[in-house]
Design a protein that fits this description.
Length: about 400
Amino acid sequence: MFKFLKEKLKSFRKKIEEIEKREEEKVEEVEKEPAKVEEIRPEPVRVEKAERVEKAVERVEVEKAKVEKKVEEKVEEVEKVEEKGKLASKIRGKIGFKEKVSTLILKREVIIDEKKLDDILPELEMILLESDVAFEVVEEISAMLRERLVGRRKKIGEKLADIVIEELKIIIKEILDRNKFDFDEYLDKLVAERKPVNIIFVGVNGTGKTTTIAKLAKRLMDRGYSVVLAAGDTFRAGAIEQLEEHAKRLGVRLIKHKAGADPAAVIYDAIVHAESKGIDIVLADTAGRMHTKKNLIDQLEKIKRVTEPDMTIFVDESIAGNDAVERARMFNEAVGIDGSILTKLDADPKGGTAISVSYVTGKPVLFVGVGQDYDDLVKFDSDWLIKRIFED
Ligand SMILES: Nc1nc2c(ncn2[C@@H]2O[C@H](COP(=O)(O)OP(=O)(O)O)[C@@H](O)[C@H]2O)c(=O)[nH]1
Ligand SMILES: [Mg+2]
């Protein structure tokens, strides 16, 4: 899971470490300044520059004189100490100047500035884009990082890479938690208030809609609910049989009509059945494709009008990347969704879809699919995702 993104983040970390190492070496050179003064030589003289060069030479001379004076003073001090016959260790204390400078560097703080972020953020943006994070989400993450890191004090010895990655984690978590939602809590309340609860599943073919309905049916039964399935994908050949097979295996009732029938009628019948039998929840499958996109949207609108679902859940596969994100946006705008379920995270090397879908829809990710077994359904939790992206 997320192998590609993990590798990229690792090399990003290395790159920051290299930039930082180069900079620290520069700082050390600057600290060795006194020795450098002597090395400064005037540039070859060009007539119009002659005056400036002369001044520079003067400044160098003055600096040199200062340094020489300091050195003389030090020598004097040392001599005085020697004269007084004090211990050799004390002399070492005086001339251990270099050591003192290096501890000074260690203690000193460096302020992270715009320039440093200009060096590293474009690379991070590229990594996120390559990992299927939607463009607008990358922009937001980058802007938030910049805002929070510019001016941040960093002690030398503290790693810039750690600071950046840690802040990146916090920001992704915040973005994910903007639409935080507890599905179980909400469902408990709904069932208590007005059962049967009607949940319809929308999304294109092949993304895992039918499998997810079966997984969720199992999960809800494990939690003590009674469930009925509605075979609302009457368009695709074999769709009814596929759901029927799951229903048999799970020991749950399925309401179906013939292929090509009106799905709104099928789902309506399932609700009537649930009411008469005291069943808690109806899970309704729908078609993922019609003759045209307009047909599909019209059909879903009719289903919503006739069956008044308590929740409309969009299902897509995380491996579809930006296509999945765009479909989520489209379904939300055209039909209205209450949340999403992303499947096939187990087969997704990138992870950006999971980061982006709730951002672009403004609706929570409720569950993620992590395999083909009934139990491979995980209740979505930002910490769960962050851990899988950032930890080995
Ligand atoms: N690896 C993996 N495969 C999945 C997952 N969810 C569904 N699938 C597989 O995706 C394929 C299409 O699933 P299906 O439920 O028929 O999709 P639908 O057309 O949207 O109803 C099937 O082979 C499923 O086993 C998942 O979380 N992980
Ligand atoms: Mg299906």
